[in-house]
Each structure stands twice: as structure tokens, then as C-alpha cells.
Amino acid sequence: MLGQHSGAIHADLRAGTDVLAAKPLQANSGIAFTGMYPLGQGFVLLLTFEAATGKSQKEMAALRPFYIAKDLTQRDRKALVIDFYPRPQEECRRDFRNLFQWVLTRVKPQRDQDPVEKRRRNWWLSPDLFLRCAEALVGIQRYVLVPRTAKRFTFSSRRPTRPLIRPLWPSR
Predict the structure, then answer these.
(1) Which of 77, 98, 101, 159 is the most buried (most CB within 10 A)?
(2) Taking Cα atoms as reference points, which of 36, 39, 35 lies closest to residue 108?
């Protein structure tokens, strides 16, 4: 026996709520993020960060923690990502010589082949997704990471690696 449903009839002949007309929740704007995609494995440093920075504390300022689902569900790789955003190329070359050379040899060849003109032109920059996330973390004592690719959702609470009292970069 067929069940009885009422409501609008949709293109797939089902009745009820039109899920295709759903809109993003404005309440999540600025507080929930997909995460950072470096768009180039040359930006990611595992145990090589000392070689990449030349052991320079100044160059460590351009490194941020980088997590993937496996870091949260199994063993943390303690990965770091090189984040020059939004510094101009000459500033990066001058202030972060070792990291700039690292990215020049490992990322630029790949970016030269990128179909997106903006990525080819700004080859030393990872995408600006991290900027919005970093600005949202200003003044936050802890944040929660949830892996999207794990079999089960797990929640991992972290503290920022350094206090975020003000935005790391100027807003646009």
C-alpha cells in the first residue's frame, strides 16, 4: 500500500519539501570553513621545515599548521604549510629567502602549467581561503576541526599555535 504525502509535486514526481531550493545558512557565514587547500604539495612541509627555513626563526612566521583528516583520526604528521598570503613577491624574496627558494623550485614549475591565470601570475601564494579563516579565529581560544573524509565524524579541539589578537593580514 502506498503512503500518503501532501505538498508540492516536483520534477521527480515526489511530493514535499523542495530540497533543490535550499539556500546556504547565513548563520554559518564567517564561522564555518572548508579548510585550506594549498594547491601545490610544495607548500606543505613535513619533517623538512628546518631545511626549508634554514633554521631561521624569522622565516617560521610564514608557516602555519596544516591538518588533513588522517592527522585528526590517526597520527598527526605535524605538517606545516608555507603561507605568504598576501605579501608581494619581492617582500617574500627579501624576508623569507629560504622558503621563497623552496616554493620557487617546488611550486612554480607546477603553477606555470596551471590553467587559472591568477594562479600562474601569483604562483608563490596559496589560495586566500586561509585569510577568511584566520580572521574568524581572531580572539578565539580554541577551534574545532572535523574531517570530512573519515568513515565517522570525529571532533578535534585545537588552540591556535600563536595568539590571534588581530588579523594576520590587512582585510581587503
Answers:
(1) 98
(2) 39
Quote the CA–CA distance of 56 and 2 in Å, as a whole number.
71
The span from the CA of 118 to the CA of 111, in Å, is 10
pLDDT confidence bin for 107, thresholds 50/70/90: very high
Within a domain: residue 171?
no
Radius of gyration of the chain (CA): 21
Supply 115's cell numbers: 590553467
Q: Are 141 and 159 in contact (CB under 8 A)?
A: yes
Q: Can you read off the three cell numbers belonging to residue 69?
A: 583528516
- For residue 46, tell me if it sits in a domain: yes
Burial group, residue 103, by CB count within 10 angstroms (0-12, 13-18, 19+): buried
Tell me if 72 is assigned to some domain.
yes
What's the structural domain count of the chain? 1
Q: Answer yes or no: is 84 within a domain.
A: yes
Residue numbers of the domain that contains 99: 33-158
